[in-house]
Amino acid sequence: MTSFPDFMRDAYKYKEKSPFVGVYFIAKPVVLLIQLDLIQNILVKDFSSFHDRGMYVNEDFDPLSASLFNLDGEKWKFVRSKLSPTFTSGKMKYMFSTVVGVAERFANTMSDIVRTESETQLKDLLGRYTTDVIGTYAFGIECDSLKDPNFIFRHYGRKVAEEPNLNPIVHFLVTIYPNLARKLKIRTIGKDVTEFFIETVRKTIQYREENNVQRNDFMDLLIQINKDVEKNVGQSETSRRLTLEEMAAQAFLFFVAGFETSSTTMIFCLYELALNQDIQERSRQEINDVLKKHNNKLTYEAMQEMTYLEMIIKETLRKYPPILGLIRKAVRDYPVPNSNLIIEKGKEVFVPSYTIQHDPEIYPNPDVFDPERFTPKEEKKRHPMSFLAFGEGPRNCVGFRFGKMQTRIGLIELLKNFQFSPCPKTPIPMVFDPYKGILSPKGGLFLEVKRI
User: Fold this and answer.
1) CA-to-CA distance for 444 and 184, rounded, in angstroms?
2) What is the value of pTM for the model shown?
3) Which residue ranges are tagged as binding site?
4) What rounded mean pLDDT belongs to the chain?
5) Least packed by Cβ within 10 Å: which of 12, 21, 149, 222?
6) Which residues line the annotated binding site for heme?
7) Which residues bind heme (predicted)?
């Protein structure tokens, strides 16, 4: 059976002949975009014609499905405008010390493990680190799954990430016939998961309001949105309170998207650094040199100075983008520029970001891990749509700054304290899990880890 990346690669070969090709995803016809200029038009310039994703949402029977990622139209615009302020550079700087505290606990946990185990399974450990970061920031709860792997937040994070949510028939219905799926009251998220997150948000809000607690975190933002609305008159779509279920849906998205995408990025990054010891050593040297300038204290400014580490993370995201492609839906007929072609209203378009980021004409020797691709000089040479790890345009990843920050902090703590090398259990070449929605190593990842 042809893998999804191989299928995309075969279709992408037609990029010199046409701006897009037609393909079928299961039984759904989809427009596959294969020219970068057209991709830029659809994601950025002509976004008003492609602002929807066409994802399954059922607010009544599957309330957590109504997250920012899935919403369309005015509801998406309303929620996006309300959530964006929590991910500014200023807010990241405010939360920096909290993430560093979790990362230091992470390094201590790793130290305890490597005393008795030289070959370390990193997948679960990295997932526990990002779970604790997200749980602390999104919900203001002192998560400690690093100490207790069965901590309740880690339990539900693992349940969402590792257990298949949908059987094949349900997946077919929500993908191909979403209107029928809504009439059948189909759930895409387990009832126990839904109840846990809604109840957690309810209790957190109640406690903060009754005790006048303010933490300037994600939950505070949701509370403040409703306080601001109370000052205004009217209940229009752009001026109304968020319901408890809507708050829970956004918190759930932030939790799930934040912990799994960042942890898998760290997994692939450490894998490549283990295989490329010269790159690992250069990164470690940069970390030590910068910290020395800052009295051996990791500050926000110190992190910003670690430019080689940033290049390493970008190259990791190029080679291993968590999401293989981007989906948009035409909200009106769209005449394709410089052609007599039309993308009809209602048609879904797919941007094959994994394939683009492995195009040898854009990235020579794309299977080689080379952070030098992301020097400022090299980046300026490439088309702006040649790197799409966080999406592009108004529907890009709203939390990309936070994801990059927790990834960088975690890697800094690990690289300054530990040496990573391949072991007999390390897959060479990498083998991906074909059943995961996010690009993940099959069976996790074992590396040899030694304390420096």
Assistant:
1) 36
2) 0.93
3) 397
4) 90
5) 149
6) 397
7) 397
